[in-house]
């Protein structure tokens, strides 16, 4: 059984990340915002630069050697990223990010619903009486596209509620998943709560009634071993910039056969076989969903990022982050006036913790921490319904990665313990 990383190993890992040597406000940077965007190791930076210096050309469009080299690099990157999540290269579509992947699905389902494709696309069609099911903890990217899909098709959007601790109410999931459910879309790991949802259990419920399962893997693909085939989901999305890669590149996984049956969303060059002045025929997946010039150098760099993660060991990274997450929660729970969202100490969670300081707005907490060189995320984290359910408008979120040390967690905890005193509020949130 792989063991967790150690502080000594993490300090060596940090040498691969130039930005971590930076000072902020005269203090050494403590970067605890990887849940929003992770940092890049030198190997990722060099991979993108090497592509531009040695291989830059249009892919799938030229017969000259440079175009061949660029296409090979692009498709090799696809195979690498697909293999990282247990998929084949034909099951992975490049997207701009996970949000784009979810919108691709929702709009493709819309196109099926208006008869854009043939009989193979019937299972994606929605109409009045059909239902799409999400959860109360979803990021807006896995909520609003489904809201809009239901608006366009007349289907009904429902959600699985959470309890007061933020856990999904699975008994409600079992009640809500019925023969009317056409799509179940949910997050693997909550970007606010840090909780890990029971993917296989939920997927089995959905598949029993013939529903399609869409997994938001943005907070799981970077942080824990992920085998989408073993999880048995139909679709999944994740983003490069959250897993050591560049911005502007993400991926949509689709089970073999499903992508080929879906009608395209964006149309244009590079995704067709034959075009006349009145109609067009489309390539099979994944190319049918990759119209126009793609983010080629970003894909190459994304592959370098997953290679870095794979070489470090995803199980070891996951175990390390779980240790950091527990250290965070234990420390935060011990501070008077601090409320931690999500699983309490001792319960499984990723290395992420969102919290509320009584009487101090999250933005003020963030500025207080930033003055000490500590970078965290503040706001509703694109999860307004979840915050509203928990009685909050915003929270402060610290999120770790393979390059964070226990000392950095302790620096955060020490700073948070001084927030209320600085702003002159007591543990109940009242001004002194």
From TrEMBL:
Keywords of the record: Pyridoxal phosphate, Transferase
Enzyme Commission code: 2.8.1.7
EC class name: transferase
The record's InterPro entries line, in alphabetical order, gives: Aminotrans_V_dom, Aminotrans_V_PyrdxlP_BS, Cys_dSase_SufS, PyrdxlP-dep_Trfase, PyrdxlP-dep_Trfase_major, PyrdxlP-dep_Trfase_small
- GO biological process: one example: cysteine metabolic process
Ranges for domain Aminotransferase class V come to: 30-412
PANTHER family, A to Z? CYSTEINE DESULFURASE, CYSTEINE DESULFURASE 1, CHLOROPLASTIC
Q: Which family does it belong to?
A: Belongs to the class-V pyridoxal-phosphate-dependent aminotransferase family. Csd subfamily.
Instruction: Supply the name of the protein.
Output: Cysteine desulfurase
Source organism phylogeny: Bacteria, Bacillati, Actinomycetota, Actinomycetes, Micrococcales
């Amino acid at each position: 059984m792989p063991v967790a990383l150690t502080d000594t190993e993490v300090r060596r890992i940090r040498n691969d990340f130039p930005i971590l040597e930076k000072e902020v406000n005269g203090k050494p940077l403590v970067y605890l915002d990887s849940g929003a965007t992770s940092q890049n190791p030198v190997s990722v930076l060099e991979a993108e630069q090497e592509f531009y210096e040695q291989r830059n050309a249009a892919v799938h469009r030229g017969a000259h050697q440079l175009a061949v080299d660029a296409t090979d690099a692009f498709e090799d990157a696809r195979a690498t990223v697909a293999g990282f999540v247990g998929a084949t290269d034909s099951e992975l579509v490049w997207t701009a990010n996970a949000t784009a992947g979810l919108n691709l699905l929702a709009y493709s389902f819309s196109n099926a619903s208006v008869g854009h494709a043939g009989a193979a696309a019937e299972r994606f069609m929605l109409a009045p009486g059909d239902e799409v099911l999400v959860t109360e903890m979803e990021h807006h990217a896995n909520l609003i596209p489904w809201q809009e899909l239901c608006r366009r098709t007349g289907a009904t959007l429902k959600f699985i509620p959470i309890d007061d601790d933020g856990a999904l109410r699975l008994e409600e999931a079992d009640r809500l998943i019925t023969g009317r459910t056409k799509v179940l879309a949910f997050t693997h790991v909550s970007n606010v709560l840090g909780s890990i949802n029971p993917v296989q259990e939920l997927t089995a419920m959905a598949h029993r009634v013939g529903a399609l399962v869409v997994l938001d893997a943005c907070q799981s693909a970077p942080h824990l071993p992920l085998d989408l085939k073993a999880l048995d989901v139909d679709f999944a999305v994740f983003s490069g910039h959250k897993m050591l890669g560049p911005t502007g590149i993400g991926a949509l996984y689709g089970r073999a056969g499903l992508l080929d049956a879906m009608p395209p969303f964006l149309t244009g060059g590079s995704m067709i076989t034959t075009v006349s002045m009145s109609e067009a025929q489309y390539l099979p997946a994944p190319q049918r969903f990759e119209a126009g010039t793609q983010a080629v150098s970003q894909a190459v760099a994304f592959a370098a990022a997953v290679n870095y993660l794979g070489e470090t060991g995803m199980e070891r990274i996951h175990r390390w982050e779980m240790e950091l997450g527990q250290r965070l929660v234990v420390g935060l729970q011990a501070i008077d006036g601090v409320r931690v969202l999500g699983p309490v100490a001792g319960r499984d969670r990723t290395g992420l913790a969102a919290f509320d300081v009584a009487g101090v707005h999250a933005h003020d907490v963030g500025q207080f921490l930033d003055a000490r060189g500590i970078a965290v995320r503040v706001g509703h984290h694109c999860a307004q319904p979840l915050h509203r359910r928990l009685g909050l408008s915003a929270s402060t979120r610290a999120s770790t990665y393979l390059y964070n040390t226990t000392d950095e967690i302790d620096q955060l905890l020490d700073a948070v313990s001084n927030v209320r005193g600085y702003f002159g509020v007591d543990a109940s949130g009242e001004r002194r």
